[in-house]
Amino acid sequence: MITTGRFYAEGAANGTAVVLSEPLSFYGGVDSETGKIIDHAHPELGRCITGSVLVMPGGRGSSSSSSVLAEIIRKGTGPVAIILGTPDPIMVVASLVAESLYGLRCPIVVCDIAGISDGDEVHIGRGGNGGAEVQVLSVSASALS
Amino acid sequence: MTLKLNAEDTALLNGDAGEGTALAMRILAAYSEAIGAEAMLPISGAHIDGCLYHGAANVDFVERLLDGNARVRVPTTLNVGSLDLIHPEIMQISTDDASPHKRLMAAHEALGCLPSFTCAPYQTLFRPRFGDQVAWGESNAIVFANSVIGARTNRYGDFIDLCCAITGKAPAWGLHLDQNRRGQLLYTLKGFPASIEPTDALFTAVGLIVGKMSGERIPVIDGLPAPRDEDQLKALGAAAAASGAVGLFHIVGVTPEAPTIEAAFQGLPPEATFEITPADVETALRQLSTVPDGAPIVAVCLGTPHFSRPEWERLLSCLGDVRPGRGIPIYVNTGRATLEGLEKDGLLAGTDRFGLQPVADTCTYVTSILQDLTGVIMTNSGKWAYYAPGNLGCEVSFGTIEDCVQSAALGCVARGAI
After folding, report:
1. Contact A71 B30 (CB under 8 A)
2. Spatial separation of the C-alpha atoms in residues A120 and A116, rounded to whole Å
3. Is the pTM of this model over 0.80?
4. What is the pLDDT of residue B418?
5. Which residues 10-29 in chain A show a CB within 8 A of chain B?
């Protein structure tokens, strides 16, 4: 399945989708050493987001999340890309800071996230008109049956 | 693309003012796109909340801007850092020049930021005026600037506040625009006596209640008495910004954009209405303390946000009357400018024998100053009481300045008239 979207931070990435049912505030929400979700109020407490294509409805929380996301990108414990249902400026700032300081890209795409399931293989790249193209290969059991 | 840059914006983006400014403009433009702003506007001041070290990216970012010859274009104050540079001996972490905390504070100064190191820049000479467009970080400063002064800022923060200061611009969006400052939720005080006394506790409690229920929407509060002074509005805002995400509140008949309810709502009806009763206030206050009255205390922490000169005068007068002698430390966070004024006027002479320890440039709940965290700490700050148990792992009790001093004298949580 291919979805088109909009880049808020450009780049290409491939990874496995970690789909969160609720927005995650990186500040106080993620352990920067392990990449695990540590927010006790978050439904996906304990999930590891390292190396994933992180998918969530949108953003939440304070601007201090920009520092935390920039740090986990720097440390290599962050996601390889983020796909959101609605744009979030705090994550966009973090991605651009990490890219400008360390040359590490964590693309941020906004598109319809309904068709992406947890565990799906996701490829993000540039579409024909300069927008974002999100290719989703479903590897969940229901897709195979 | 919704954002249209003008010639000046584009020149900055293209590097006319150097690589550092170009980077700041690139990030600011991306941020502005993400929020759907259509244009930028010029700002007359900024307040940066970038001096708290969260990781290497914080220092690397500021040093990169310096390497690119960036300088702030508008008068820019700094929020607290992690170090008290006036009293380095009280710090439990290194104050060496090489420490990342120190590097971060120093790098901001090198960019041309004023070393105010206070979360109450509105108490300094750099206080904005009604209608000024500014870019401020730090939740209590933001809500004070918007609500008490009627200046205009969005809830800026990490990295982006500095980008605004360096470019002299902010997105023409959100609270910078008239129509977005309209009140949305109405809170009416109900069940209080006809002439309500303006107490510190009342303003703190109302702030906590309104913050929790408002999320990011704009509350209008009706029925609060005129405050004794703006420190009570400071306490309300700090509590609301901590328990919720309030960036602007209106108090009918008190704050500058709310002479009447109609003005606060710009003629439109509220989206929802709520009542605040004395029982609600009592509950909110009770929830701030994690221990009952009578519990032994190990320290007192005052000044979150930073103590103003009037608050200091109340405290010093009370200390002089009560004369605590148990050696329980009374930490008071304050701006270095305020501290200098007190010292110049000789008001702090001999106060250390009462356990008084002024803390400048930082705050006792964000860094390592308190030595004994094994017991109860008493505070007059709703914000301190809200965050400290999570940040420091301590127990906390909330009371007035006078309650705190009395408790230091007795060694346990005590309330009521001295």
Report:
1. no
2. 7
3. yes
4. 44
5. none
Chain A residue closest in CA terms to B32: A89
Quick one: DSSP state of residue B148? I
Residue written as token pair 């230091």: B408
- The secondary structure of residue B239, as a DSSP letter, is H
CB of B54 within 8 Å of a chain A CB? The answer is yes
Judged by a CB distance cut-off of 8 A, whether residue B58 touches chain A is yes
Lookup result for tokens 């690139």: B26
Phi, psi at B48, each rounded to 5°: -100, 125
Distance from CA of B63 to the nearest CA of A (A): 10
B266 DSSP assignment: T
Put simply, whether A43 touches B (Cβ < 8 Å) is no
pLDDT, one tens digit per residue, over B136-148 is: 999 999 999 999 9
Render pLDDT for B330-346 as a digit per residue (tens, 0 to 9).
999 999 999 999 999 99
Span B271-305, pLDDT tens digits? 999 999 999 999 999 999 999 999 999 999 999 99
Of A9, A67, A87, the CB nearest to B54: A67
- Residue B362's nearest CA partner among B143, B18, B151, B90 is B90
Cβ-Cβ contacts under 8 Å for B269 (sequence gap 6 or more):
none
Q: Do B158 and A93 touch (CB under 8 A)?
A: yes
Distance of CA B201 to the CA centre of its chain: 18
Q: Give B233-271 pLDDT, tens digit per residue.
A: 999 999 999 888 899 999 999 999 999 999 999 999 999
Mutating which of B33, B51, B54 best tests the A interface, going by the most A Cβ atoms within 10 A?
A: B54
Contact call for B57 and A101, based on CB within 8 A: yes
